[in-house]
Write a structure and sequence with these properties.
Strand content: under 5%
Number of domains: 1
Order of helices and strands: HHHHH
Distance between the termini: 23 Å
Radius of gyration: 18 Å
Length: 141
């Protein structure tokens, strides 16, 4: 028999799962969108607030790693929550590395974009930082 609060916890857990899936989809979409737009200067996008675009352009190396920190945090959260073995963490990290390479390789045929090995490095570092932060996080259970 289910406890009085068990159904509520299950509902919250399912909601967290869907929010996490949505976060991963949005972050992946953002990575590919911003990697494959013809103009790398975000400050020149018509819809981007001028000040924000200029700041992001000023720190162009970091902007590559930031969404991957988010992806590492979200995927790491669910790996930890599900108590997945270290091998699964490695597979997810490998997936994120493949995303970094795919995003950069997609720039080869864009006239104002170039494959940048430093962007690949920053994406990998961002993924690792996010996942390590969740792996090392003290358990609340």
């Amino acid at each position: 028999m289910e406890s009085k609060h068990g159904g509520g916890r299950l509902m919250i857990y399912r909601l967290m799962m869907w929010v996490g899936v949505l976060a991963v989809v949005v972050l992946l979409g953002a990575v590919f969108y911003f990697s494959w737009i013809p103009n790398p200067r975000l400050g020149e996008l018509g819809w981007m607030p001028e000040g924000l675009g200029d700041v992001v352009d000023r720190f162009s190396r970091l902007r590559t790693g930031v969404p991957f920190v988010g992806l590492g945090l979200v995927t790491g959260f669910f790996l930890r929550r599900k108590r997945r073995p270290l091998g699964d963490w490695g597979l997810v990290f490998l997936f994120l590395v493949c995303v970094v390479f795919t995003a950069e390789l997609g720039q080869i045929n864009l006239p104002r974009r170039v494959l940048d090995w430093q962007d690949i490095l920053w994406g990998i570092v961002g993924s690792a930082v996010g996942m390590i932060a969740m792996w090392k996080r003290p358990s609340t259970r």
